[in-house]
From TrEMBL:
<keyword id="KW-1003">Cell membrane</keyword>
<keyword id="KW-0812">Transmembrane</keyword>
<feature type="transmembrane region" description="Helical">
    <location>
        <begin position="25"/>
        <end position="45"/>
    </location>
</feature>
<dbReference type="Pfam" id="PF02632">
    <property type="entry name" value="BioY"/>
</dbReference>
<keyword id="KW-1133">Transmembrane helix</keyword>
<feature type="transmembrane region" description="Helical">
    <location>
        <begin position="99"/>
        <end position="121"/>
    </location>
</feature>
<feature type="transmembrane region" description="Helical">
    <location>
        <begin position="133"/>
        <end position="156"/>
    </location>
</feature>
<comment type="similarity">
    <text>Belongs to the BioY family.</text>
</comment>
<keyword id="KW-0813">Transport</keyword>
<dbReference type="InterPro" id="IPR003784">
    <property type="entry name" value="BioY"/>
</dbReference>
<feature type="transmembrane region" description="Helical">
    <location>
        <begin position="168"/>
        <end position="191"/>
    </location>
</feature>
<feature type="transmembrane region" description="Helical">
    <location>
        <begin position="57"/>
        <end position="79"/>
    </location>
</feature>
<keyword id="KW-0472">Membrane</keyword>
<protein>
    <recommendedName>
        <fullName>Biotin transporter</fullName>
    </recommendedName>
</protein>
Length: 201
């Protein structure tokens, strides 16, 4: 007899279990605003159009806390806000030109990364332990680069500035690895701690 494996609820379903349309809309908006606030932390680098920002940590936390569906929709709402010109992107910028620019691939990958982290949480409960949360965060980060780097390469080619794979990685990957590891560790400390406070495993 086959035993059914029940999904793990994301954090929000434990804190706010009664699902309504108003609840979902509020959570989607709250998640998009959290990412917008994190985007205010922006450090431009002189050798690349890709800045160091606080967005990544917020995106992955939103995905883990809200789950795959609401996490994805929250980041989709974030992109829509930015496309309409609201100053929600890195450094308080906005506009469709930012999505079409060199960092557009990373921006478009935000909903996918949040959805992936949410899916890992729901299917495997990875946010319950430090190693699991760290793995989920690193998977979300990897997806950002899988989409963002080819987009950046295409943009550089179009601008006549593409100088090879090594230069691309130096502009869009290597400088960000230390910060991404720190963010992943922070998330891996925050989420399991939240579950312990709730008395859940």
């Amino acid at each position: 007899m086959k035993t059914e494996v029940l999904p793990y609820p994301p954090l929000v379903k434990t804190l706010w279990p009664h699902r309504t349309l108003a609840r979902d809309l509020a959570l989607i908006l709250a998640g998009s605003l959290l990412v917008a606030l994190a985007a205010r932390i922006s450090i431009p680098l002189p050798f690349t159009p890709v800045p160091i920002t606080g967005q990544t940590l917020a995106i992955l936390l939103v995905g883990a806390a809200l789950g795959s569906r609401l996490g994805f929709l929250s980041l989709l709402a974030y992109l829509a806000e930015g496309a309409m010109g609201l100053p929600v992107f890195a450094g308080g910028t906005g506009g469709l030109a930012k999505i079409l620019g060199p960092t557009g691939g990373f921006l478009l990958a935000f909903p996918l990364a949040a959805g992936l982290v949410g899916l890992l949480v729901e299917r495997f409960g990875l946010d319950r332990s430090f190693p699991g949360t760290l793995l989920a965060m690193l998977a979300g980060n990897a997806l950002l680069y899988l989409v963002g780097l080819p987009w950046l390469a295409a943009w550089l080619m179009g601008a006549g500035k593409f100088a090879g794979t090594g230069a691309l990685l130096a502009m869009g990957l290597f400088p960000f690895i230390p910060g991404d590891l720190v963010k992943a560790v922070v998330a891996a400390l925050v989420l399991p701690s939240a579950w312990k406070v709730l008395g859940r495993r």
